[in-house]
């Protein structure tokens, strides 16, 4: 990146932090707390490509929860909190390039799906239902296609996957990609954006109308802001984020008609990422798939977390 662009990025961060000692202290405390959070509660094992991280919560029927863009095991556990509290053993890996999971030479969704099998072998689990949220639906779908003997059911949750009607979200030029890479390594920029313009972050990163969050219950507001805050530390997720930007911005079609396991597709009509189109396409292509579309709630399904979790729980229970 040219030095001028580096200077501009540095000036933004320096300007925010130089606004006062309190801002600097607050940023450092926030980053330290985030580092402590992602450094505890997870485990790693040596997969064929390198180190893979995973965590689990709850007890009961095993369920594989695959996080979305900006996530990691922590986002996966947060997405499935009601499930882990309601009789499910939620297993949440960190995908390629997120937190302590290594980044392989082939970071494709198909390769990630194959590594999920290695995780199941490590845990001694034969078959399992899988839930893929947002960009995590790409590898969840590949898991159902490539490993039907290990997958007992598929839930595509606000899937950032292919649909003929779904427009490309972020076609990046080489300059834009370099700029994005530089910004992802600046935890201070992300922290500043969260604190100075949370509504903008909700509207862009979470693809959700901020007015919906403002009108939501206290619990729902807290859940949405947790999803945003979990992205910290951003720099520990930068390689995974860049990979998701490539894979999910203009996703290639999957061989959906090869899916033979029971399938549930869930989305929200006003999701700014256009995942309702993708969910409808999955339901159309996969024989016997069930479709749920909520009219309002954005990419993080504001106002529907309880009923959405109940739908997933009932779906998994019917799998036996």
Task: Please summarize what this structure is.
The protein is an alpha/beta fold and 320 residues long. The chain is built from 14 helices and 8 strands.
Question: Which secondary structure elements does this structure contain, and how are they paired or packed?
Answer:
Layout: H1 3-17, H2 21-38, E1 43-46, E2 51-57, E3 61-66, H3 73-79, H4 81-84, E4 88-93, H5 109-123, E5 128-133, H6 136-146, E6 151-157, H7 174-184, H8 187-196, H9 198-204, H10 210-214, H11 218-230, H12 238-249, E7 263-268, H13 275-285, E8 290-294, H14 305-318
Parallel strand pairs: 3-4, 3-5, 5-6, 6-7, 7-8
Antiparallel strand pairs: 1-2, 2-4
Describe the structure.
The protein has 320 residues and is α/β, with parallel strands linked by helices. Helix content is 48%, strand content 15%. Strand 5, helix 6 and strand 6 (151-157) form a beta-alpha-beta unit. Helix 3 (73-79) packs antiparallel against helix 11 (218-230) and helix 8 packs across helix 9 (198-204). Residues 1-18 have low confidence and may be disordered.
């Amino acid at each position: 990146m040219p030095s001028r662009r580096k200077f501009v990025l540095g000036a933004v961060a320096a300007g925010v932090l130089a606004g006062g000692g309190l801002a600097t202290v607050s940023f450092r405390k926030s980053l330290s707390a985030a580092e402590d959070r992602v450094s505890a509660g997870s485990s790693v094992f040596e997969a064929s490509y390198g180190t893979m991280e995973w965590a689990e919560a709850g007890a009961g029927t095993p369920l594989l929860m695959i996080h979305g863009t900006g996530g990691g095991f922590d986002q996966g556990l947060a997405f499935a909190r009601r499930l882990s509290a309601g009789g499910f053993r939620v297993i949440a890996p960190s995908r390629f390039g997120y937190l302590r999971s290594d980044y392989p030479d082939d970071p494709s969704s198909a390769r990630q799906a194959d590594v999920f099998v290695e995780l199941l072998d490590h845990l001694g689990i034969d078959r399992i239902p899988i839930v893929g949220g947002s960009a995590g639906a790409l590898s969840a779908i590949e898991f159902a296609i490539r490993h039907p003997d290990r997958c007992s059911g598929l839930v595509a949750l606000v899937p950032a996957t292919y649909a003929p009607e779904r427009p490309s979200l972020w076609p990046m030029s080489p300059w834009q990609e370099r700029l994005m890479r530089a910004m992802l390594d600046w935890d201070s920029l992300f922290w500043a954006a969260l604190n100075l313009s949370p509504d903008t972050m909700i509207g862009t990163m979470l693809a959700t109308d901020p007015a919906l969050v403002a009108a939501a219950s206290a619990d729902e507001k807290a859940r949405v802001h947790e999803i945003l805050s979990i992205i910290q530390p951003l720099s520990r997720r930068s390689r995974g984020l860049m990979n998701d930007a490539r894979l999910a911005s203009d996703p290639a079609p999957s061989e959906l008609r090869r899916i033979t396991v029971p399938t549930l597709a869930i989305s929200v009509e006003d999701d700014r990422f256009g995942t309702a189109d993708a969910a409808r396409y999955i339901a159309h292509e996969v024989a016997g798939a069930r479709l749920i579309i909520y009219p309002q709630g954005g990419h993080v399904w504001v106002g529907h977390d309880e009923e959405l979790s109940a739908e997933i729980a009932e779906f998994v229970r019917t799998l036996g």
